[in-house]
Amino acid sequence: MQILPFYLVCDESGSMNGDPLDSINSALPELHREISTNPTVADKTRFCLIGFSSDAKVLQPLVDLSDIDTLPGLAAGGLTAYGEAFRTLLGCIESDVAALKAEGHDVYRPVVFFLSDGGPTDDDWQQAHKELIDARYRPNIIAFGIGEADRATIGHVANFRAFMQQDRTVSAAQALREFAASLTRSIVRSASSIPADGSGGFNLAVDETVPGFTTVSLDKL
């Protein structure tokens, strides 16, 4: 079976307290439904939730969303340390892919939805980021900046799509819903084109625009 690991990596810094995290927490059940209730998508997707501030925690290990009832909530606290997020993410990807392969699955390049409202407070985050994108299982990173996020940093973090919040009436939750719907459509389209013998690749075709957000040029690394 072909599996697409999907990681939601979300800033839990103190500045995210209130509406940003509340809206994301309210969107998690919708993301759960969007992915887990579509048999084609649920069959091919595994989901992991990581929250980060001064450290990084795996709040939900990689799992088939149809196997769980609720996802854990995010809670604000600490500073915005990107390095810990990237190191934790890399460790998860490496162990998760190894486990999936040991079960006999083919694993597609992981997808990461990275969401932050500020800038990193640690000095070594770019090295941690480089190690992540240079790793064997280099993920497709889709980065969203909300609130006071730094545009250049968001463009540097992403290697597939980058967006900045433009219209404050459109919440991070809406961006998450749009992304979940877009990812679902992409998986359904791709699954329908994969031959019965499983040959061929997964074609990630996530939308290039999100209502209320502007597209950011990616940093040329």
UniProtKB/TrEMBL annotation:
Q: Which PROSITE patterns match?
A: VWFA
Q: Spell out the SUPFAM superfamilies in the cross-references.
A: vWA-like
Please state every residue range assigned to the domain named VWFA: 5-183
Q: What is this protein called?
A: von Willebrand factor A
